[in-house]
DNA sequence: GCATGTCAAGTTGTG
DNA sequence: CACAACTTGACATGC
């Protein structure tokens, strides 16, 4: 069993910078690229630091924040690494990150945000989503990340139709991206049961989020969902990925969807114990929550 | 220094 | 019908 940290740290001095398109657009092209170069260099340096830090804690996986290179795919202020004054240094650091992760068996993943929707009926939404995903695939290749995990997106009144659009778009993606793309059950629309046929058809692994499953149940037990999701990883010969979180306000009062600071060990499925799998811990207390969960479970 | 408002993007459900 | 919630700050601005 391997535990994963998502994107950020609570106490450790590892930070990531960003900027906005609006702010960039006020600068001359030269200054824009200078500013972006500084941010990107800072971010890859800190990504290396992040991997050293998780390694020190015995954490075996790390989710990389999507805007590692902020606004790279933006229609107005987008850029490539070759455009940046520190481009060569940035490339070198990406290389070092890949080697460090490989040597220490740290599993890396990406989780594009809610604007990436492959099932949308709107052409431009799908185009923008593909552009963002291909950017993350390029990045994933550079650092040796193995998973780019998305949600199935909107329903638009017909789940089957939406999923068939997802499937059609998937076929047209680059091999770099297709070999990394995974799909996750969400907490309002698509359940494990909804996604399994798509995953089997496309040979896309299913990331099982047990918290979402509890918020948005589908008749499968946790053990059944775990096993059926595991099968989608087994067929492609890869280690299963799952997500865990606890409800901030408990299960009985109010909305269970918001994430708590820590994981209540009671929420950790018994059937996961001892399995060969990666569990990403989605908790506000970040590295503190991962460490505490590992201790609570006696890892 | 510190408080505040803003930031590319989609979709859904709530008030 | 407008707006917050998802992931969640970080940063620019203004006092």
Helix and strand topology:
Elements: E1 2-6, H1 21-25, H2 29-57, E2 61-64, H3 87-103, E3 107-110, H4 123-143, E4 147-151, H5 159-171, H6 175-178, E5 181-184, H7 192-202, E6 206-209, H8 210-215, H9 222-234, E7 240-244, E8 277-281, H10 286-296
Parallel strand pairs: 1-2, 1-8, 2-3, 3-4, 4-5, 5-6, 6-7, 7-8
Helix pairs in contact: 2-3, 5-7, 7-9
The protein binds a DNA duplex (15 and 15 nucleotides) through helix 1 and helix 4.
Tally of contiguous helical segments:
10
Helix % is: 40-55%
Instruction: State the name of the first-level CATH class of one domain.
Output: Alpha Beta
- Going by helix content, strand content and strand pairing, the class is alpha/beta
- Largest sheet: spatial strand order: 1-2-3-4-5-6-7-8
Question: How can the largest sheet be summarized?
Answer: 8 strands, parallel, barrel
User: How many E-type strands?
Assistant: 8
Runs in which pLDDT lies below 50 for 5 or more consecutive residues are none
Mean pLDDT: 93
Q: What integer value in Å does the Rg equal?
A: 19 Å
- Indicate the proportion of strand residues: 5-15%
Distance between the termini: 9 Å
State the CATH topology of one domain: TIM Barrel
């Amino acid at each position: 069993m391997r535990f994963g940290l998502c994107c950020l740290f609570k106490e450790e001095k590892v930070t990531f910078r960003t900027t906005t398109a609006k702010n960039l657009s006020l600068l001359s092209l030269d200054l824009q690229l200078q500013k972006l170069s500084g941010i990107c260099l800072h971010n890859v340096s800190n990504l290396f630091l992040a991997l050293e830090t998780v390694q020190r804690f015995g954490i075996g996986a790390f989710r990389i924040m999507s805007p590692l290179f902020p606004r790279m795919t933006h229609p107005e202020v987008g850029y490539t690494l070759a455009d940046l004054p520190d481009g060569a240094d940035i490339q070198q650091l990406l290389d070092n990150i890949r080697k460090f992760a490989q040597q220490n068996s740290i599993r890396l993943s990406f989780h594009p945000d809610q604007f990436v929707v492959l099932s949308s009926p709107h052409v431009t939404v799908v185009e923008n989503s593909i552009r963002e995903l291909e950017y993350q695939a390029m990045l994933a290749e550079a650092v040796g990340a193995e998973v780019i995990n998305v949600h199935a997106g909107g329903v638009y009144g017909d789940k089957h139709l939406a999923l068939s659009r997802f499937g059609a778009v998937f076929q047209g993606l680059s091999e770099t991206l297709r070999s990394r793309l995974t799909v996750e059950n969400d907490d309002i629309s698509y359940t494990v049961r909804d996604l399994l046929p798509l995953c089997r058809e496309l040979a896309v692994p299913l990331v099982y989020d047990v918290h979402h499953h509890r918020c948005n149940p589908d008749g499968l037990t946790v053990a059944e969902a775990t096993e059926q999701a595991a099968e989608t990883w087994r067929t492609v010969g890869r280690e299963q990925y799952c997500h865990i979180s606890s409800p901030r306000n408990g299960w009985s009062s109010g909305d269970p969807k918001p994430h708590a600071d820590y994981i209540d060990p009671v929420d950790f499925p018994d059937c996961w114990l001892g399995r060969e799998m990666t569990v990403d811990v989605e908790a506000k207390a970040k590295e503190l929550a991962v460490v505490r969960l590992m201790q609570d479970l006696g890892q």
